[in-house]
Structures are given as C-alpha cells and as structure tokens.
Amino acid sequence: MRLDLRDIIHVPDARKTFRFQLDLSGQDFYGSKPIVRPVDIQGSVTNHAGALVLEGTARSVLELACDRCGKPFSLEKLVVLDSLVAQELEDEENDDILLLEGAELDLDEAAATAFILAMDTKNLCSDDCKGLCAKCGADLNLGPCGCGPDVDSRLAALAQLLDKEAE
C-alpha cells in the first residue's frame, strides 16, 4: 500500500490514518513458513512540527513448531511500528528513517521489514518446555523417561559400586 502524504507534509499536527492487510505467507524462516495468516497493519502518520512520524502496529497469528519438543503451536505476534519519515536524508547513517518516494510512503515495505526483523529465532511452546530426551526421544513435558542419568566413563566403576549398594 502506498500512502500519499502530500496533504500533511506541510501542515503541522495533520494526521493520515491507514489500515490494511499484508500477505507474508511466502516468507521462509529456516525452512518453515509460519506466517500463514495475513498481517493486520494499522496506524497513522502525523506531522509533529514538520517531522513526520509513523506509528502503528502489525499483528498476526503465527503457526510454529517448538524448538525443544517439536509440538506445533500458535502464537500471536504484535510488532510496534514507530519510525521517522523524511523526504531526503542528510547523512547516510540514519537507515532507520523511512524515505518518501515523491510524496508517497511504501507502507508494504516498511511494515514487512519491521515484522520480519521482529521474528524470533527460537520459538518455544512455553517458557518451561522440557523438550525431548536426548537418548530415547521421549517428551519430557509428559513426565520423566526411563533412561538413567549419563555417567562419565571415567566414573563408571564408581557408578557400578553405587548400583550394587542400592541392591
């Protein structure tokens, strides 16, 4: 979506609102495509004493697989959009400022970039997910598995002594 800002560029306290949906279902993240639903984007661009400010949100529900236990789960993702908008940059170091193309702002690119950069690299079904047993693959969230603790090979003789005492 391209937002025409020519009617607020030179008008202090003027505001232009927007609301649209963006399809990011084709975006690949490490072999999966978790953004299966459209991203709802809404917000406004406001002229604050000559400075254009983009404020808004991008929201969607992601379909993910837990990185510890592998179970599929859904997660609502909300990304806050907050950027300055300018017609031209005075120096090249301000890469977080969005540039207008003429008097238009490419909201698709701005929202997609913000949403993609906010994606987590690790996804857990819960903060206390125990994952899978490294030996047998049992889901440790359902309870302990039958595998014994790992014994350092250098201490194997002592472990055997402890096993005999337990009998």
Sheet-strand content, in percent, reads 25-35%
Over the alpha carbons, how many angstroms does the gyration radius reach? 26 Å
Mean pLDDT equals 88
N-C termini distance: 73 Å
Count the DSSP helices. 2
Task: Please give the number of β-strands.
Answer: 7
Strand order across the largest sheet: 2-3-4-5-6
Tell me the structural class.
mainly beta
Helix content: 10-25%
The main sheet comes to:
5 strands, mixed
What is the N-to-C order of secondary-structure elements (H for helix, E for strand)?
A: EEEEEEEHH
Shape: elongated
Low-confidence stretches: none
Q: Layout of SSEs?
A:
Blueprint: E1 2-4, E2 15-22, E3 39-48, E4 51-65, E5 72-86, E6 98-99, E7 104-106, H1 107-117, H2 156-166
Parallel strand pairs: 5-6
Antiparallel strand pairs: 1-7, 2-3, 3-4, 4-5
Question: How is this structure best described in words?
Answer:
The structure is a single chain. With 167 residues, the protein is mostly beta strands. The chain contains 2 helices and 7 strands. A hairpin with a 6-residue loop joins β4 (51-65) and β5 (72-86).
Short description:
It contains 2 helices and 7 strands, in the order E-E-E-E-E-E-E-H-H. With 167 residues, it is mainly beta.
Pick out its properties.
mainly beta; two-stranded antiparallel ribbon; elongated
